[in-house]
Every structure is written in structure tokens, then in C-alpha cells.
């Protein structure tokens, strides 16, 4: 793989604009090379063929001066050539502070020198951009390190308060109350570990590994040990309650002084939050170190390419400047990483360095061949079952059977539920595939832990496995005639859909219990999931039908009276409204929290959809259609459709920007083909009009039963949602890129009541 592609592949996508623009500098070098090739001597250009040129180049290399087996050896001629300087690099002083770097090209008088001047000008711009960004991020992590240090002070004081440990017969609470070790150490600043009056504190840099003399270290610990002071708890507010409205209200009323009755649950919650903060902080440090290394490597590569094209020796001087600059000489991040590792191992890994580093440095997820094999096997079996079902229907002429209508009314809605789920999973698998292909950081946007997100292969495995089970149930459930002796269908066969549903619900419950509960604040994963539910309205109605059919219907004879029940009709509307109502409440919640009127407008959009769905459903259930309800259904559905379509394209996708460099799209696009965006906008508008099937009274289509038509319309909405998913996350990703937002904020358990500039 060429370096340019490898460089782009290893970038932090949210920081891509802060990296050196390698491709732009490489294009300038191509211009220099093209100019030199066009201005070669005619004799040289027409001497030999390409093959002969290659042979001459190889032969000429035999007579080139030997560079030595080590870099320390330089021939005298090379030393003389180095005296001929090509560039001068210096830092511009601004108010006594070292500012941007500038390169002076000394060979500007040569032919084609203007191209090389342009190259170094762009090179300086890129280096200064990288340097400013790196300095800014280092300053940010140093401030975060100080905040984490204060959090650790409070955590250790809380540990002493809750655990009340006794060491060598001494009560640590009483000893800590006497005020020993008044100075708090910091992650971002080193302190002496011996010989000082203050002794050792809990954040001092310690060596957790390879202690050759454990007894000596233990003796030193005993001599200098001082517990963390408890007076820090007089200045902090503990924020470890569950994030619910009631708990939030209690935290405001509750006193934050040190006479609180601290519990072990509070301590565990505080430790969990600080652990998460350390893991995220360490990931940020690793990313920052990688950013520094990759850019240094990129500058080295581009300068060597420049030397090769121009036959000059400018890389040495420029790379010396890079090494001496803040980018190459600062070791703050490396030292801070060491302190974080030592602190985490000591306080959260019980001194086990291997386990601690395993948590701080999670391994990349490995692709397993058995997953690919299994989803391929399941998919092949599913296709075979589909073919078998089609052959069976034609061979037995089931489409013209007397029990066809009975089957479509009672059995088809049961299995269509699994069809909706499988289709949605297939669309999500496609989303994941294209998100990864176009480097959309969906795992960060959704807040997945590194290595825990499902790839498209895992999603395909789940969907193909579910489809295999559902299709196996269908092919065993194709009986259209009752048993003439019992005048009923076989009970076990009729219960197959119910068994499948119970199995799916059980798996979903087990998965949800293992996951973390969402916080009180509404974030993108919350409303993204709720949006998925709005496209599964027919699936929720199928669940309602399951309850009615198996609870009050006669499933042994495939008959039900659900459509005749007024309660069922009311619940049919309520079930369809619930997903939209969840989104409506989420919008109101965000409006209250963020004071952004856009969330209020979004809430109105969902409220209009609620009205449209309710009126449209009432109209479809009327035996005698009235024009009043027809007008109401058409009007509310039309308003909801226009509002939703506009919001999809303009707000969620960020498209239809008249002043964009890409006509009617947006300035930045992830997919290189613009036609994809135009096609997606048109398709979204068309699929949004699927509701017209109900308003226009289109209940049947030739060779398609009414329930099958409902399933087709529901499937079109799921497909539209799958398309929406890709462009919605693409727009969110580009917003993160524009704001350099590459890390999630982790809530800390403590915050200090006095100003942050005062020492504890």
C-alpha cells in the first residue's frame, strides 16, 4: 500500500483537516517533476527506449558513491555537497514568543524555481497548521489531567470515609482528619517520591512492575505513608446518583458538605465513572501521540520525495527543524501516558499491570472466518427455502386454494413480523458496510466501546439466522386444509410463529439487560433508535395481532374476530402512535434542556405525523367512507409528508444548500458520486408518499392480497429508513469533523464548589 493511502487510513477522521495535506503537497511535486521532464535536453529524451533507460539507470547505480553501512559514515564529497544549502528554516518571533516557521528557498533563481517556492510555502502552511493544532490539544489534555487529579483526591478521600481502613493498628479516618499531606499531586506534574517533607501522596509516580526488592519498597512505603486528607470532601459535590428526574431534584436539594452519609454504592458508582474517564482520557492521549507520529512521518516522506525529484538535499535541514520543534521535541504526552498507566494499574487494576493495560489498550476486533462461513451458509439455506416455498405453492396450486384467504388473514401477518425485522437488519448491515467503506465513524457516534460494535458480517449472521428459522416455519406451515377428522389444524404447527416470537423476545431481553441504561439526557443514539421504531409501525401492529390471535382467537381453526373488536381498533391506532409519541417527547425534552427552537419545530413535525396516522387509520377502518374524513386524512398526511421530507433532506442530511460548492448538496460529501445524493433525495420523496395507498383506497392489487399489500408498503418504509440512516450519520460525522469532535465526554462523579483555580 502506498504511503498516501496508509496515511489516510490511519487518520482520526474527525481530525482529518488538522493533518498534513499529503496529497496536495504530492500534487505540487508532480508539477515540479512534469516541468523537469518537459525541460530535459533533447538528446537525453530521445536516446533510448524505456527498457534501455532502466538498464542504464541500473548500470549507473554501480558507479554511485557508497553511502556507508551506517549513517555515521559520510564521504568527503558528500560533506562538501552538504555545505551547499538549499533552504533556510527559521521561526518567526512574535512578541518574544516563538511563532510560525518559515522556509527560505535559496535556489529561486534557477529555472522552475517558482514551483519549489510554492512547495515550501505550502509545506510551511501545513506544518504550522499541524503544530498549532497539536499545541492546542496538548494544553487541553494537561488541563484534563489536572481535573482528573482533583477527582482522584476526592475519590481516595471517599474511599477512606466509606471503607474506614485500619493500617498497622492506625485508624486512617482519624489520621486523615489531622491534615497530613495537604498538597495534592497531579497527573500533569511530577513530584519527588522520596526525600521530601511531604512524603508520598496517592498520585506520585510509582513503579508498579519489576520491583526487584519488594521488602525495601514496603519499608519505604511504611515510613512515608500518609493518607489523603478528608477536607477535600468539604469542597466537592458528589454526583453519583442515577440520572433520573427524581434523583436530579434530590441532588439539588441535598446538602453537599462532608457530613453526608456516604454509601458503598456511591463509592462504586464514583469508581466506575472515574474508570471510564481514565480509559477515555488514555485513548485521547494515544490518539494524540499517533497524530504526532503520523505527521512527522508524513513530513519525512514528502521531503524525501522532494529530494528524489529535485536531486537536492533539503530534507535534512527541514527534518532537523521538525525534530527540534514542539511537535518533535515535546514529551508531555508520553510522560502523561506513563503516569496514567501507573495510576490506573495502582488504583483500578489491583496492581496487575497486564490487566490494567489490557483495559487501557483494547485490542482491535478481529474478523472471524467462521462468521463469514455461517452467514453464507444460513443465507444459502434461506435462498433454498424461498425456492422450495415458491415451488411448493405452484405445485400444489395454493394461490387458488379455498383456504388462501383464511391463510393470508390469519397466518401471513404472523410471519410478516419476522420479514420486517430481517429486512431492517439487512438495511442496517448495508449501512455498516458503507459507513466503514467511506470512513464514517459510526461506533463513536453511537457511543460503542472499542471492539464491541457489530460489523456488517455479524448483522448479516443474525439476519440470515432469523430468516432461516422463519422460512423453515413458513414451509412447514403451508397446509391450507383442515384435518377432516378433527376439523382443525395441527396445534403444534399453528404454534410455530408464537415459539419463534418468544425466542426473539427472549434474546432481545437478554441483550438489553447486559447493556447499559441510557442516561437522563437525550442523545443521538436515543433518538436514532426511536426513529427506527417509527419505521416499524406495522411490526408493532403485528405484535398486537399476535396477542389477539393467540389470546382470543381460535388459532386451531385459523379464525379470529380482531377486526370486529372496538378495543382492538383503538389499540391499533395507539400502537402506531407510540413510536412517534416517543420522538415527540424527546424533542420536548431537548427543547427544555438546550433551549433550541429547532427541537420545538421537530416536535411539531412529529405531532403532525401523529395526527396524520390517527386520522388515516380511522378513515381506513370506516365501512362507509365519508368525504370529510377523506379530506382530513389527505390534508394531515400531506402536511406531515411535506414537513418530514423537508426535515429529512435539509436538516437531517444537510442537503439542498443553494450556496454549496456542490450544486444543491453541501460543501463536503463522503460519497464521491454526486448522483447518489440526488437519487436518494428523489427516492426519499417517492417513498414518503406510500401513505397514499390508504387514502386513495387502494386495498388490492392483481395477484396481491390486501395483507400482502400492507406488507409491501411497510417494507418500502423500512427501505426508506435504511437510506435515511446512511446520510443522517454521514451528516453527523461531517459535523464532528468540522468541530474536531473525536471523543465523547465522560461525566465525572465530583465537582468542586469553589473556583477551579484554587488549590485543594
Describe this structure in words.
With 760 residues, the protein is mainly alpha-helical. It has helices at residues 3-9, 22-38, 42-45, 50-60, 76-82, 113-163, 172-177, 214-224, 245-253, 264-310, 315-324, 326-329, 332-348, 353-360, 369-395, 404-410, 412-437, 442-446, 456-475, 491-494, 496-514, 524-534, 537-552, 566-594, 597-621, 627-652, 675-687, 692-695, 706-738, and strands spanning 87-94, 97-105, 166-167, 170-171, 236-238, 750-752. The chain has 3 domains: 1-36 and 87-164 and 228-242 and 262-363, no CATH class; 368-515, no CATH class; 533-743. Residues 43-53, 71-83, 180-184, 190-223, 240-260, 513-518 and 755-760 have low confidence and may be disordered. The protein is built from 29 helices and 6 strands. Helix 2 (22-38) runs parallel beside helix 10 and helix 17 runs parallel beside helix 29 (706-738). The protein has a two-stranded antiparallel ribbon.
List the helices and strands and how they pair.
Layout lengths: L2 H7 L12 H17 L3 H4 L4 H11 L15 H7 L4 E8 L2 E9 L7 H51 L2 E2 L2 E2 H6 L36 H11 L11 E3 L6 H9 L10 H47 L4 H10 L1 H4 L2 H17 L4 H8 L8 H27 L8 H7 L1 H26 L4 H5 L9 H20 L15 H4 L1 H19 L9 H11 L2 H16 L13 H29 L2 H25 L5 H26 L22 H13 L4 H4 L10 H33 L11 E3 L8
Antiparallel strand pairs: 1-2, 3-4, 5-6
Helix pairs in contact: 2-6, 2-10, 6-10, 10-11, 10-13, 13-14, 15-19, 17-19, 17-23, 17-29, 22-24, 23-24, 24-25, 25-26, 27-29
